[in-house]
Design a protein that fits this description.
alpha/beta, Rossmann fold, 10 helices, 15 strands
């Protein structure tokens, strides 16, 4: 069962149920269809543009310069005429993007940008929603009551990535053990001590300790799943890496994608390992030609462009990620029909742009 798709559909239904126009959308037990999701996206985009125009100094100036009337966004074509937001626009100027007073900001995260760090702010409600989406993703990968998730992210301040994933594991009924970036021997000791069944950590760290673990018989530890997270910096994940991780640890290896700017949890593979399922309740994703900015069709490889649909603290419109991928439509091997993306192939760094 794909719990992530169920969570996405439930979130979409709940959102539309609160709308005065909800009569045009599925109610009760009727299945969410692709056309429903597209209508949901268009409604969210139209509302978001108006919200941002009234509250964000950056977007207010951007709209004025580009002659964008927020009330005119009535189609995806209208939306595509809004200029892109670049990482360089945020560096050193996050206050220009904030749409809420400082008193409502709960947590800030920093990501490496092109020239300096990018700072992004969230409310507690927004972080709670991220936790819920992570829980749905972990449930899809089989995390259940009695399982132990070993979290190998670097320790952060309160409400950091390690804490968010820990809370998500608890929602699944599992126990979380945060071990950070320790030595391989320390990690293995914790796996044995706690009976770890699932691992999650940054792609480069897990791949590094996998190389050190080769030939040590760790495939007998009972690890069922290994999640390799990729995001702000590019690290490869291909079938040869998957095969190595699965051989050494004895469980299935999954690609995960999420950046600080977009909200940490964007897309993840399911047990079918046939592309990363996108959280379409919270993100509208475009793929564009990285040189011209022209929109590309599903299946065509280009740059991922994100719009955050439900953030009210620091939403982003048409944010250029610099990550190269492609969108995948159609039914996944797990049976889910939500939009998927191919694992990121490379990252474009636009250094020195003004």
């Amino acid at each position: 069962m794909n719990f992530l798709e169920e969570w996405i559909h439930s979130a979409i239904k709940q959102s539309l149920g609160e709308s005065a126009a909800s009569g045009n959308f599925p109610t009760g037990n009727r299945k969410i269809m692709r056309e429903d999701i597209e209508r949901y996206h268009l409604q969210k985009l139209s509302e978001l543009v108006k919200y941002i125009a009234a509250r964000s100094p950056f977007y207010r100036r951007l709209f004025a310069k580009a002659d964008v009337n927020p009330g005119d966004i009535k189609s995806f074509e209208d939306f595509s005429k809004i200029p892109f937001t670049e990482p360089r626009n945020i560096i050193g100027k996050p206050h220009l993007f904030c749409c809420l007073p400082q008193s409502q900001i709960f947590r800030g995260f920093s990501a490496e940008g092109t020239l300096d760090s990018i700072r992004v702010f969230y409310t507690k409600d927004e972080l709670d929603r991220i936790v819920a989406s992570i829980a749905a993703a972990l449930g899809t990968l089989g995390l259940r009551k009695g399982d132990v998730l070993q979290i190998m992210f670097s320790p952060e301040a309160e409400w950091g990535c390690d804490y968010l994933v820990s809370r998500a594991a608890e929602i699944c009924g599992a126990r979380a053990v945060v071990t950070g970036h320790g030595l391989l021997e320390e990690q293995v000791d914790k796996m044995v001590e706690h009976g770890t069944t699932m691992l999650i950590g940054s792609n480069p760290y897990i791949y590094a300790i996998t190389g050190l673990a080769e030939g040590r018989g760790l495939d007998r530890l009972g690890i069922r799943s290994v999640i390799l997270s990729r995001g702000c910096s590019y690290f490869p994940f291909d079938e040869s890496i998957r095969e190595e991780v699965e051989r050494v640890w004895g469980g299935k290896a999954y690609d995960h994608y999420g950046t600080i700017e977009t909200g940490l949890a964007v897309a993840i593979e399911c047990p079918a390992q046939d592309g990363l399922h996108i959280n379409e309740a919270d993100f509208f994703i475009e793929v564009v030609d990285p040189e011209t900015g022209e929109a590309l069709e599903p299946g065509e490889e280009g740059e991922l462009v994100f719009t955050t649909l439900n953030r009210r603290c620091m939403p982003l419109l048409r944010y250029r990620s610099g990550d190269i991928s492609r969108l995948i439509k159609g039914r996944c091997g797990c049976g889910a029909e939500m939009l998927r993306m191919e694992g990121v192939k490379r990252k474009i760094l636009r250094i020195g742009e003004e």
